[in-house]
Amino acid sequence: MSWLFGYSRPQQPPSDEPPANGGEPAAAAPVNLSKAEKKAMEAYRFDSSALERAAQAARELERSRHAKDALEISKLQEMTRQQEQMAKIKEYEAAIEQSKVEQKRVDYEERRKTLQEETKQHQMRAQYQDQLAKTRYEEQLLQHQKSQDEILRKQEESVAKQEALRRATIEHEMELREKNKLKAIEAEARAKAKADRENRDITLEQIKLKAAENRTTILESIQTAGSVIGTGLNALVTDWDKTLAAAGGLSLLALGVYSAKGATSVAARFLEARIGKPTLVNETSRFSLLEAVKHPILTISRAVSNFKKPTDALGGVVLAPNLERRLRDIAIATKNTRMNKGFYRNLLMYGPPGTGKTLFSKKLAKHSGMEYAIMTGGDVAPMGKHAVAAIHKMFDWANTSRKGVLLFIDEADAFLRKRSSEHISEDLRAALNAFLYRTSDQSSRIMLVLASNTPQQFDSAINDRLDKMIEFGLPGLEERERLIRLYFDKFVLQPASQGKRRLNVDQFDYSLLCTKLAERTAGMSGRALSKLGVAWQAAAYASDDGRLTEQMCIDICDDAVQDHRQKMEWLSVEEKSRTMIPYLLDLPPLDKETDVKKATITELPETKEERKTKKKTKEVELEKL
Ligand SMILES: Nc1ncnc2c1ncn2[C@@H]1O[C@H](COP(=O)(O)OP(=O)(O)OP(=O)(O)O)[C@@H](O)[C@H]1O
Which residues form the AAA+ ATPase domain (predicted)? Predict the structure, then answer.
């Protein structure tokens, strides 16, 4: 269709020739014009060729058969173009709307950020104000505390002054009273001496009269008694029947008295062996009628616990793993011996005090279904010549038990020491002999457990009777930690959790505390650690609100450590060298300069090298001693 409007045709250069259709020439080119004139002419020239071509086309169209169609097509084209224009307009409108939405979104985002920033600023300001208020409050508190302290200090000072004044007054008063008293006594003595001196003759006369009277009374009584006995004897001698009757009566009376005495003592011994508890036995799990009458509640509770299932022999006893293994074997063997009615083996337990010897022995008896009896070696010597009878009585009593008795002798070295020793008395020697006689054979009724801190003092015959020797050492680091946990739980956590008593515990890491305290308590025995638990409990009860804090635990532990070290220092040289060398070597030295109380829990423990050097130094010192 381009031909219709002629825009696709190549443009004809303007020519001077007349057009083919005979029309007018476009313009007559002026000839011989200067350049400037030509330029001026160019400005007014109009190219009419396009119009001409359009007119030509219109004419051709008029003549053409398809003129109408062409017009329709051009109309359609125009409409299409208009629709395209409309679509574009819509697109532009949509783009405008889109840009408006985008603008709104950006605005909203801006506003949100601004709001956020404002909130943040507000928060920061609030926090800062809060911080300021806190600081101000703390300062006020501090100020208040200071003033309180100052008041307290002044009050204390004034009380101390008053106290000093009061004491001085009392002392002065007492001094005066003492002086007055002395003066009174002196005056009294003087007056008495003067009176005595003046009444000397009268007093002497009185004494003489009294003595004469006494003499006369005694002489008269002797005369009367003599005459009565003489008359009686005279009558008896002269009458033979009376003499015989009197002799028979006296003999019968003597026989009656002696036989009654013998029968009573036999019956008493029999009853004592079955009902009572021998004097040498301090503690026993065995039922005794006398004990039941004396302590009924204790006896009932013991009887109830005896009916319970046998307990673990090592329950609640914390020992080194090796020792635990050995003791477990012994417990199993003892239980089987009892069940099979075999012969018991005698044990020796030795080691420093408070390491669980007695505790384990009791548990062993309970675990094996036996009864136990505890005696102390130190009780034998004071009994003197009665010790032999007491030992026999104890063995008789033990032999009457059907369950079997674990006879635990604490401090056994006190009476089972070497017979050749000069320090042993005759009575003690006799007691030892009696003991040796009663233990000469293996027994299926009595299991002997000797405990001693110095087993090297035993008589060789005693050593011969021992089947197993077990050393109870001081607890190591791990055992100490277990012990501390055990007693912290027993004495603090359990009563606190029951809530019956007035005891609370602060929130802190108990486990970490136990670990740290174990490091500090080197050289302390199980007994010392159990006392630590009791001390914590007591401190909590003593506090105002019944609350136990971490710092209280640490302070109490430090005190105990300090006391323990002091006790170790007090041990005599002999004791140190004889019994405690292996255990003392493990103990860190006591440094009097450092106040353990001030030390904090965060202190680093000694290094291995330091410990070794200290150990060596101590060894050398002990050797020198
Ligand atoms: N190994 C341990 N495990 C748990 N508790 C222990 C241990 N050792 C000691 N104790 C605590 O210490 C207390 C005293 O212990 P025990 O009487 O058994 O010591 P011991 O070795 O017989 O001392 P001693 O030679 O002075 O008689 C026990 O009742 C227990 O509370």
Answer: 343-476
* Token pair listed for 127: 């926090």
Q: Please work out whether the CB of residue 410 comes within 6 Å of at least one atom of ligand 1.
A: yes
Smallest CA-to-CA distance from 5 within 45, 60, 76 is with 60
- The residue to mutate among 530, 532, 537, having the most atoms of ligand 1 within 8 angstroms of its beta carbon, is 530
Residue type, position 12, single letter = Q
Prediction ipTM score: 0.96
Pairing of strands 281-284, 371-376: antiparallel
Computed over every residue of the chain, the mean pLDDT equals 82
pLDDT tens per residue, range 244-288: 888 888 899 999 999 988 888 777 766 666 666 788 888 888 877
pTM, 2 dp: 0.53
Instruction: Name which residue sits closest to atom 26 of ligand 1, judged by CA.
Output: 353
Residue nearest to atom 29 of ligand 1 (CA): 359
Tell me the per-residue pLDDT of 155-186, one tens digit each, with 9 for 90 and over. 999 999 999 999 999 999 999 999 999 999 99
Q: How is 133-189 classified by DSSP, letter by letter?
A: HHHHHHHHHHHHHHHHHHHHHHHHHHHHHHHHHHHHHHHHHHHHHHHHHHHHHHHHH
Determine the distance separating the centroid of ligand 1 and the alpha carbon of 286, expressed in angstroms.
22
Sign of the CA dihedral with 571 first, then 573, 578, and 583 last: positive
Cα 354 to averaged position of ligand 1 atoms, centre (Å): 4
Instruction: Kindly state the tokens that stand for 108.
Output: 């909203």
